[in-house]
């Protein structure tokens, strides 16, 4: 497996055109990922017609690079402006924006890029080694009880985001479950909590909801601070975190 991986990497990155596609995907993914509401699926749909002349390996690499760098790009706005570029960057704003207010934005952005790189490489290596045995085991052993336990575990982890105040975390989980029930039942076809509005038959989309909770609320908060004269622009620091600092925050 390692030999095939090394041979494929050498063949893929030995072409200058492939390297140009790689760097284009990195820059484009970071720029589009930093725009709130523009998901990586949107960018992939925009670039899909331009990949017709690419080889399958080049096309897959382009979309993979766009997705990975776009996820990191969304962390930039989450750290600097408290506005996540993508829903998965929402937890980054909890710790990243307070560091920006303390003048440590450089350390926060540096920690985000280092953790994204280390986590991405490590998870890719684990995926290559463990995908086949895990898939074989899951097909034979995972059923409805295991799926229920996995969902319950996910809800418990989501509730722990509230920190020391556990009831706020569970209240957020219940609010999210209530919002998720809006729309047409996928099994019975019954409209739930749409209050007679046909536009709510498809439910509430995830990305607009996240932008409403984070982006719009932050805009109003900053506007109020400017109106009352309590707004203070945070200092942008350029210091990069050391490996010892990252290890201390593990």
SSE blueprint:
Elements: H1 2-13, H2 16-33, H3 40-47, H4 56-81, H5 90-101, H6 105-141, H7 144-159, H8 166-180, E1 183-184, E2 191-192, H9 206-228, H10 243-248
Antiparallel strand pairs: 1-2
Structure description:
There is one protein chain. The chain is an all-alpha fold and 250 residues long. Helices cover 69% and strands 2% of the residues. It has 10 helices and 2 strands, in the order ααααααααββαα. It has a two-stranded antiparallel sheet. α7 crosses α8. The chain is globular and about 55 Å long. The two termini are 31 Å apart.
Give keywords.
single chain; mainly alpha; two-stranded antiparallel sheet; 2 strands; 2% strand
- Uncertain regions: pLDDT < 50 for 5+ in a row? none
Counting helices, strands and paired strands, the structural category is mainly alpha
Give the number of helices.
10
Terminal Cα separation, in Å?
A: 31 Å
What radius of gyration results from the CA coordinates?
21 Å
What composes the largest sheet? 2 strands, antiparallel
Helical amount: 55-70%
Number of strands: 2
How much of the residues is beta strand, in percent? under 5%
Mean pLDDT: 80
Q: What is the chain-wise order of helices and strands?
A: HHHHHHHHEEHH
Globally, the shape reads globular
| Neighbour order of strands in the largest sheet | 1-2
């Amino acid at each position: 497996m390692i030999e095939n991986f090394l041979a494929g990497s050498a063949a893929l990155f030995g072409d200058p055109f492939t390297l140009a596609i790689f760097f284009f995907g990195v820059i484009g993914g970071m720029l589009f990922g930093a725009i709130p509401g523009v998901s990586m699926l949107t960018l992939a749909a925009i670039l899909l017609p331009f990949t017709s002349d690419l080889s399958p390996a080049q096309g897959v690499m382009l979309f993979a690079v766009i997705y990975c760098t776009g996820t990191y790009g969304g962390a930039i706005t989450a750290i600097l402006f408290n506005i996540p570029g993508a829903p998965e960057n929402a937890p980054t704003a909890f710790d990243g924006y307070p560091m920006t207010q303390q003048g440590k934005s450089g350390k926060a952005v540096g920690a985000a890029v280092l953790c994204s790189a280390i986590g991405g490489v490590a998870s890719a290596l684990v995926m290559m080694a463990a995908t086949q045995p895990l898939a074989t085991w899951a097909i034979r052993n995972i059923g409805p009880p295991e799926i229920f336990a996995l969902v319950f575990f996910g809800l418990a982890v989501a509730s722990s985001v509230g920190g020391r105040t556990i009831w706020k975390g569970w209240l957020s989980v219940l609010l999210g479950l209530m919002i998720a029930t809006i729309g047409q039942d996928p099994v019975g076809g019954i409209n739930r909590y749409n209050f007679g509005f046909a536009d709510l038959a498809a439910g509430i989309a995830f990305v607009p909801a996240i932008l409403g909770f984070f982006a719009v609320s932050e805009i109003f908060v900053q506007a109020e601070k400017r109106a009352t004269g309590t707004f203070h622009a945070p200092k942008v620091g350029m210091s990069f975190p050391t490996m010892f600092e990252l290890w201390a925050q593990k």
